[in-house]
Amino acid sequence: MEVINQNIALREDRNLLVIAHLTQYLDFITGFGGLIVPLVLWLTMKDSVIGMDEHGKAIINFQLSLILYVIIGIPAILLFGIGILLLVLAGMLSLIMPIVNAVKASNGEDPSYFGTIKFIS
């Protein structure tokens, strides 16, 4: 019978956490990379980097929330322009919150995205 040692040494890599937050801006370049790249980083590094699980979940929840806001906001434009406000809010959040949380990650603080629905807990 063979015993496999499953103790994985965790390392602290704040730069990788910052990069994970800043990769959300790929949405503005490619249109879809802001969800896929952080998802891949989170899935591959969550067991080896301290804090990656928490930061990755926050990023994915934020991106899924933004997608939901856009999906709701587009048809809501017909309802007295409420959708325009929702789309503007989603756009402002997508510009501001990754920078705020990248700075928090570089300081070793926990992420906090405003207006995020917890899809992954």
Molecular structure report:
- The chain has five helices and no strands.
- It has helices at residues 14-22, 26-29, 33-45, 52-76, 82-106.
- It is elongated.
Question: What is the fold's blueprint, element by element?
Answer:
Elements: H1 14-22, H2 26-29, H3 33-45, H4 52-76, H5 82-106
Brief digest:
The protein is 63% helix and 0% strand.
What are the salient characteristics of this protein?
single chain; 121 residues; mainly alpha; 63% helix; 0% strand
The total count of strands amounts to 0
The biggest sheet amounts to:
none
3D shape: elongated
Classify the oligomer: single chain
Number of helices: 5
Which ranges are low-confidence, i.e. pLDDT below 50, for 5 or more consecutive residues?
none
Please trace the helix and strand order, writing H or E for each element: HHHHH
Provide the β-strand percentage band: under 5%
Distance between the termini: 36 Å
What Rg do the Cα atoms give? 17 Å
* Helix content, binned percent: 55-70%
User: Mean pLDDT, as a whole number?
Assistant: 90
